[in-house]
Design a protein that fits this description.
The complex is a heterotrimer of chains A (382), B (269) and C (336). Chain A is built from 12 helices and 9 strands. In chain A, the strands form 2 sheets. In chain A, strands 1, 2, 3, 4, 5, 6 and 7 form a 7-stranded mixed β-sheet that branches. In chain A, strands 8-9 form a two-stranded antiparallel sheet. Chain B is an alpha/beta fold and 269 residues long. Chain B has a single domain, classed as HUPs (Rossmann fold). Chain C has 8 helices and 18 strands. Chain C has a 7-stranded parallel β-sheet with strand order 7-11-6-1-4-5-12, with helices on both faces. In chain C, strands 15-14-16-17-18 form a 5-stranded parallel β-sheet. In chain C, helix 3 packs across helix 4 and helix 5 packs parallel to helix 8. Classes of the chains: A alpha+beta (382), B alpha/beta (269), C alpha/beta (336). The interface between B and C is large, with 80 and 93 residues.
């Protein structure tokens, strides 16, 4: 068992970090403050293939493995969690399902633009009355000829304000009375597609989260993803993958807060010595370091398993559950170590704290994660 | 069409290394290895020239086996292939030996138009290799360039030399040393990293080269390092007391002790 | 080059600066050369290549030399790679010096590296100290103390088996010695160079507008400006004070990002290292990225209004005051 990244993965980490520090760092506080999306950095992200990290080279992506993917999301999120979110949703739950379950025609039609960042992708499931109760969605698509007429709405859609390709989970009814849940590919520009107002969020403010309204959109049969009745299964498997990206995101945020805390505690002099020399502070740093390391191993392990075996549900739930928890804990302690300065917007600590919280909520709350882990354990997957 | 070669070195990413008391050498375990910071500017120049004039960029390094990762990173940026000069015999080579080995390599390569290097390495910072390679290959070394153009295998440029700003022309092949911040090195893409592992890296070991003059190993290197130690300067840390004016007065006194005087008009000190 | 006993005397490449005067650094090296020559019982020889070289000889004679070897020719007006290398190498082959010291200047560094290569000998560059050392490698060898890793490491290096033992030295490392020996030997060499060996064709060569000889790493007195100076006007004051005191301006990353200072004046990890006698840090906090570039300065005075600024840890003299205010007063004092 080798506990180190491969040489290629080290190159990925080093160069994504260089990119993030150079291109994203100046912009991160601005997109947070103004709750805006920066199209210039979106173009720069295209240059390094960040919109198609795992999409195979034949569709214009970089074709990297999942550990490299996790490293990329972590390094981006360490500087700008909002950008990390945009990318992980686009890559993991937007692009990935199309690659995994799509027809060749769908892949040819969509993946190039997605890999280049020309079309930003996303995944919508949550509705006003359906969050954790995923099967309780109310969107309905009724068959009409070969097409389906989709009606309903989704809330809290990550990338809602900038995306043009969304996977939509919806109930369906066929002409011969068959019912179930399907995943449709809905594109901006389809008649009846409406973007709602942008949410005013606590954190991840650089990611435009909106509602989406589907006013009798005619979804052609070419836009059904996989088999019609497999929609729910596709969604659940997609989320298994998405959680690894979210966990990597949380890891990046925690890492940033931790690094700041170490630096600050070495330079801040109180009672004639750096505060890092007081155990009250150094013990906090020790706990942070341990938690981050544990989270990182869980994330990389889940990423590795995704590439090597079909079932990694338990491991991906574990890594998201744990990484998001420690991110919240660490960002909170980081502010504490910085004292009054940590509370001020001059420093990024408060932004890390605000950004971290949602990682325990989206793509499955921590409670749902525990449910999943428990189910797996009780099924015999100890 | 140009045959461009860029020389790079893999260095430890550390500015304040530990010294192993037993061996007297720098501790390198656990330290990340990176491409020498000045070399990025050389790589960027090589890649831009290739894009402008067509041709091939080969990145060359001399080092232990792990230095191949530096070549991969350079290829990820846009070089076409790499050469790793690696053999136990070459370990601990100083700049003279490095120049002699490089001469053998380039004699074997035969066709080269441009050899580009950075200014100095972050570990040894001698800056000597470009000059010594220029001697070894008997080709001109051009430094401190600000504009350049290549036409029919003739290199035309404007450069600073001493206190002149020269317009020069010289036939290829030549060596170019690129200054820090001469250009903006391009960022490396994920696809670039993936594809770099498909490209060719040739290994040149001792047997592959003629090395008639080569003085092998650390034992025969003309320079010998007899001691390496950590160095920490002890500063006085003397706080000057008094009100602002008193502090400034004391400052002026110290400046005068260091012979910082007013410059009288017309006559320099 | 195998019989080291055949090699004698300490040579110093006595560079002429801007074809106006003898380079101060060369005179300082002569000072140290004098000590080495006395210890070894050998001669100190100055090597001069210049146009109208005769005019510089009196100054050189006053700095402790036993002998001067010189060439004078129009082609030697400016340093030229091929000409100087060939001529100096011929001299080395003929006279076999044991030690050859050169100033760490653009010309000195180039010449030293090339001569070392041609002689297949070692070159220790930018030494901070030189001494004679006896060890298992041999007796009375020249030991150079050289910084590496931005000055955090010192390496002691010698060159036991090849000759000459070569080093380059920066300005400000040694002190000049005023001493005129009796019976100084002066040897004039004829100029012998085939111009067809020159491969570089010079089309035009106007004088540079910037001052190339006043680079940060050569400067004896450096004034550094940091974020604490805050506004453009204060940086203009810094430039003025430098002008009045013949100092060089440098700075940290922040004023460069803000546009108050050009990129090449950055001092620190991704910029220049200074070897000044005196460094004044105005409004600089002392982040490690900058500090690594200043530790080679002999004396550091820091002015910052924050008493906890890390710069005070690496300074010899610490002044807690508003940097802009201090700058203003100094400017009044030094103004001509």
């Amino acid at each position: 068992m080798k506990f180190d990244l491969s040489e290629k993965q080290h190159l990925v980490r080093r160069n994504v970090r260089k990119f993030a520090e150079k291109v994203l760092a100046p912009v991160a506080p601005i997109v947070d403050k103004e709750a805006s999306f920066n199209w210039e950095t979106a173009k720069e992200l295209s240059k390094i293939n960040a919109w198609g990290i795992q999409i195979p080279e034949k569709y214009g992506g970089a074709g990297l493995n999942t550990v490299s993917y996790a490293v990329t999301i972590e390094e981006i999120s360490r500087i700008c969690a909002s950008t990390g979110l945009t990318l992980t949703v686009h890559n993991s739950v937007g692009a990935f399902p199309i690659y995994k379950w799509g027809t060749e025609e769908q892949k040819e039609r969509l993946l190039y633009d997605i890999a280049s960042g020309k079309k930003i992708a996303g995944f919508t499931w949550t509705e006003p009355n359906a969050g954790s109760d995923a099967a309780g969605i109310e969107c309905l698509a009724v068959q009409d000829g070969n097409d389906f007429i989709l009606k309903g709405s989704k809330i809290f859609v990550t990338n809602g304000g900038i995306g043009s390709v969304f996977l939509v989970g919806s109930k369906y009814e066929t002409s011969n009375g068959e019912k179930g849940i399907a995943t449709f590919i809905v594109e901006k520009g389809m008649e009846g597609y409406e973007i709602g107002k942008m949410e005013d969020k606590l954190g991840m403010r650089g990611n435009p989260t909106t509602s989406l309204y589907f006013n009798n959109i005619r979804v052609p049969k070419e836009n059904i993803l996989g088999n019609l009745k497999d929609g729910f299964k596709i969604a659940m498997q997609t989320l298994d993958v998405g959680r690894i990206g979210i966990a990597a995101q949380a890891l990046g945020i925690a890492q940033a807060a931790y690094e700041h805390s170490v630096e600050y505690s070495k330079g801040r002099i109180q009672f004639k010595r750096p505060i890092s020399q007081f155990q009250g502070v150094s013990f906090k740093l020790a706990e942070m370091a341990t938690k981050i390391d544990a989270a990182r191993l869980l994330v990389y392990r889940a990423a590795y398993l995704k590439d090597h075996q079909p079932n990694f549900t338990k491991e991906s739930a574990m890594c998201k559950f744990y990484a998001s928890k420690i991110a919240r804990q660490i960002t909170q302690e980081a502010i504490q170590i910085h004292g009054g300065y940590g509370y001020m917007k001059d420093l990024p600590l408060e932004r890390y704290y605000r950004d971290a919280k949602v990682t325990e909520i989206y793509e499955g709350t921590s409670e749902i994660m525990k449910l999943i882990i428990a189910q797996q354990i009780l099924r015999g997957n100890l | 069409m140009l045959d461009i070669f860029v020389l790079i070195k893999q260095v430890p990413k550390v500015h304040d290394p530990e010294v192993d008391r037993k061996t007297g050498t720098i501790v390198r375990e656990g330290i990340e290895n990176i491409i020498n910071p000045d070399d990025w500017y050389a790589l960027e120049l090589g890649i831009s020239l290739k894009k402008k004039y067509g041709g091939n960029v080969t990145v060359v390094t001399m080092g232990p086996a792990q230095a191949e990762s530096a070549l991969r990173e350079a290829i990820a940026m846009g070089a076409d292939d790499g050469i790793l000069i690696c053999d136990n015999i070459f370990a601990y080579s100083d700049t003279l030996q490095t120049a002699l080995v490089l001469k053998e390599v380039f004699d074997k390569i035969e066709n080269y138009d441009l050899i580009i290097t950075g200014t100095e390495t972050s570990d040894s910072s001698t800056g000597q290799v470009p000059y010594q390679l220029s001697e070894a290959l008997d080709i001109p070394l051009i430094t401190d360039i600000f504009t350049m153009e290549i036409e029919d295998k003739c290199f035309k440029c404007q450069r600073n030399f001493g206190h002149e700003s020269q317009n020069i022309e010289v036939d290829l092949p030549i060596l170019i040393r690129v200054g820090r911040h001469f250009n903006e090195p391009r960022l490396i893409s994920l696809l670039g990293i993936k594809e770099s592992y498909y490209k060719d890296v040739k290994l040149f070991d001792f047997n592959a080269l003629n090395c008639p003059e080569y003085i092998d190993g650390c034992n025969k290197s003309p320079t010998k390092v007899v001691k390496t130690e950590k160095f920490v300067i002890k500063r006085k840390n003397e706080f000057i007391e008094g009100n602002v004016n008193e502090k400034i007065q004391r400052l002026i006194e110290i400046m005068q002790e260091h012979r910082i005087e007013k410059i009288w008009t017309g006559v320099k000190k | 080059m195998s019989n080291t006993d055949e090699y004698k005397d300490i040579w110093v490449f006595t560079e002429i600066k801007d074809h106006v005067k003898v380079h101060d650094c060369a005179l300082e090296i002569l000072g140290k050369g004098r000590d080495l020559a006395d210890n070894l019982g050998q001669k100190l020889v100055a090597i001069v290549l210049a146009l109208d070289a005769e005019q510089y000889l009196p100054t050189i004679e006053e700095h402790g030399v036993d002998k001067i070897i010189y060439l004078s020719h129009i082609d030697l007006k400016h340093y030229h790679e091929r000409i100087f290398t060939k001529l100096v190498y011929d001299l080395v082959l003929k006279h076999k010096p044991s030690i050859f010291l050169l100033p760490s200047t653009e010309a000195g560094n180039a010449l030293a590296a090339r001569i070392a290569f041609r002689c297949r000998t070692g070159l220790v560059s930018n030494v901070l100290d030189l001494e004679l050392n006896s060890s298992e490698f041999g007796a009375n060898l020249l030991l150079g103390n050289k910084p590496a890793f931005q000055g955090n490491i010192r390496a002691k290096i010698l060159c036991p088996d090849t000759r000459p033992q070569m080093c380059t030295i920066s300005g400000g490392t040694f002190k000049k010695k005023k001493l005129k020996k009796e019976n100084i030997e002066i040897e004039k060499i004829d100029y012998d160079f085939d111009p067809s060996e020159i491969k570089i064709k010079i089309i035009g060569a106007p004088t540079r507008k910037d001052k190339p000889s006043a680079t940060l790493s050569d400067a004896k007195f450096v004034l550094g400006g940091g974020h604490g100076l805050a506004i453009k006007e204060n940086f203009q004051k810094l430039y003025k004070l430098a002008k009045y005191t013949d100092g060089q301006v440098g700075g940290t990353r922040r004023p460069i990002l803000d546009g108050w200072m050009p990129e090449h004046l950055q001092i620190g990890i991704s910029g220049e290292t200074i070897f000044s006698e005196l460094y004044l840090a105005f409004g600089i906090s002392g982040a490690i990225q900058h500090v690594v570039g200043i530790t080679e300065s002999k004396t550091i005075i820091a002015i910052n209004k924050d008493p906890t600024a890390p710069i005070f840890k690496v300074a010899d003299y610490c002044i807690v005051a508003d940097a802009a205010e201090v700058l203003e007063v100094l400017l009044k004092y030094y103004k001509v």
